[in-house]
Design brief:
The protein is mostly beta strands and 127 residues long. The chain is built from one helix and six strands.
Length: 127
């Protein structure tokens, strides 16, 4: 978490970051993982995130070696200034642990190196 309370983004496009204000993967609630789709010159860890569709599966490996499988439920884009963080921090299916992935998306704002949207992919744990 950044000092202003915002989600800190990974410095490296190949890394992800778990938002410490969210649940741990595999526990009740929703885990929020942040990563980059790309840099100006290379594909990032979340490259293709926008292509994920309901029913797609992904896995996360916890530090203990436990593998947890999730199924995509939906994806949502938000304006960068109006991202619904309450929803991003909530499970896609109430009562089922979720893993939500967030990244910058859209078009570059003129005169900046910032994107104008955020994309969130909402998943539910396969039990």
């Amino acid at each position: 978490m950044a000092t202003d309370g915002a989600i800190a983004t990974p410095a490296n496009i190949y890394d992800t970051g778990w938002y410490t204000g969210s649940a741990l993967p595999g526990t009740p609630g929703a885990s929020l993982i942040d990563g980059h789709i790309s840099s100006w010159t290379a594909k990032g860890v979340f490259y293709g995130l926008n292509n994920m569709q309901p029913g797609d599966q992904l896995q996360i490996v916890r530090g203990s070696g436990q593998i947890i499988t999730y199924t995509v439920v939906k994806k949502q884009t938000y304006a960068d200034t109006n991202t619904d963080m309450s929803t991003a921090l909530s499970p896609a299916v109430a009562g089922t642990p979720g893993l939500n992935l967030i990244s910058c998306y859209g078009k570059v704002k003129p005169g900046t190196n910032e994107f104008d949207q955020r994309i969130v992919v909402f998943t539910k744990q396969v039990m």
